[in-house]
Amino acid sequence: MALWGPVLGALLTAIVGCLCLSMLFRHRRPQEPPLDKGFIPWLGHAMAFRKNMFEFLKGMRAKHGDVFTVQLGGQYFTFVMDPLSFGPIIKDTQKTLDFRKYAQELVLKVFGYKSISGDDQMVHSASTKHLMGQGLEDLNKAMLDSLSLVMLGPKGPSLDASSWREDGLFHFCYRVLFEAGFLSLFGYTKDKEQDLQEAEELFTKFRRFDLLFPRFVYSLLGPREWVEVSQLQRLFHQRLSVEQNLEKDGISNWLGCMLQFLREEGVDSSMQDKFNFMMLWASQGNTGPTCFWALLFLLKHQNAMKAVQEEASRVLGEARLEAKTSFAFMLSALKCTPVLDSVMEETLRLGATPTLLRVVQKDYILKMAGGQEYQIRRGDKVALFPYLSVHMDPDIHPEPTAFKYDRFLNPDGTRKVDFYKSGKKIHHYNMPWGSGVSICPGRFFALSEMKIFVLLMVMYFDLELVDPDMPVPPIDPRRWGFGTSQPSHEVRFRYRLKPMP
């Protein structure tokens, strides 16, 4: 036994060394995309990528063209920047490009949830059943009730509700959407005051986790931050436990359907708790930040604000409070708001910055729209970054950095879906929700709850920026690639409930 220890140690060292050397001495083969490994062994361009993903990829495209492979922390990513070539990657009928493996590793690390066979199909099935059609209408009703509770309080507006209040616009939007979304999905107790307090406390913890999230994913936390993340994970697992949910009424059918599947598959309750944490993040991590951008753009562009308010008055009628505790709102009107739909689509074009990743399961031939073919190695990752390659493409979207509330409207007021690149009609002209197998299954509910919130704000409240001349803040570079972007600094605003006639 004493002899085998050093022998096995030497073998292990040799194997690891060979693997490292194979990465270190990787060279571009014939027909492979341009390879840029960077100057730091193994790390490659990881630091520049994590510092500012957008600027890094813009520089790589200028240097190498629409397809290039870069080394990031010992892994090789091939970025495809030509949206006319996205189709085969997104569809991938041969299933050579896998999204699930990467997603499973990520949710295990971030939320502690260990995926089981069939749960991805289960999420899509439950979302199709409960986040569309009648199921969506039921959840919209629950969301409207929750927004009324959060924004007006359990007893209705206070005596000073019509007085001006000041807050950070990002904090306000994120808090209100999170608290209302949490209550809509996870239900209520009989004590509404307690429910509101719990939602508010949970948001504080959620926001702290949110701030650590990007560096957590990249494993860049300091020792104390790792401890804090672990504590936050345990707190959410406990506060969202299925045991606590049994004491609540009104848990959403969507969440209940998915938990029932897990129970039937024999998943223990502790793993169901972690699943709840994952679904809370998936449903509430982007809606608040998106509404921040939407309201900010409306406040900075009064022509857009006027168009939305006129549409709201036309389809919803005069704003009024019923019984002083809830907003009067015809949810059917959500299907008749083309102006607001365009505003939200434009907001998502400017604010959503997701990365679409696929793991190459076997050597793969990447076929470009221009006829070029590239060999991609098994084990590498193929990546799309639509914000740079689509949303900011001036050929597809003229003046791409400008907010144009009617960009997605035809002259007759119908939705515009015809966009072109190099004279060719393009299918993937806006990709805030991802696409293909990785498209967000909850996008219809997310869009509905954001539209309800924005309509309530412009109908029932007077809004103004504390500093109207302050420019729109730049995007926080640490958030590139993680869903909806967040501002690099807060924006102060004032609001008050309009006097009711």
Automatic annotation (TrEMBL):
Phylogenetic classification of the source organism: Eukaryota, Metazoa, Chordata, Craniata, Vertebrata
Membrane topology, record value: Single-pass membrane protein
Binding site for substrate: 109, 286, 381
GO molecular function terms listed in the Swiss-Prot or TrEMBL record: heme binding; iron ion binding; sterol 12-alpha-hydroxylase activity
Sorted UniProt keywords: Endoplasmic reticulum, Heme, Iron, Lipid biosynthesis, Lipid metabolism, Membrane, Metal-binding, Transmembrane, Transmembrane helix
Membrane-spanning parts: 6-25
GO CC aspect terms: endoplasmic reticulum membrane
Residues reported to bind heme: 440
Major place of residence: endoplasmic reticulum
Cofactor: heme
Source species, domain of life: Eukaryota
Pfam families registered for this protein in UniProt: p450
GO biological process: lipid metabolic process
Subcellular location: Endoplasmic reticulum membrane
Protein name per its UniProtKB record: Cytochrome P450, family 8, subfamily b, polypeptide 1
Family listed: Belongs to the cytochrome P450 family.
UniProt cross-references to InterPro entries, sorted A to Z: Cyt_P450 (IPR001128), Cyt_P450_CYP7A1-type (IPR024204), Cyt_P450_E_grp-IV (IPR002403), Cyt_P450_sf (IPR036396), Cytochrome_CYP8B1 (IPR030686)
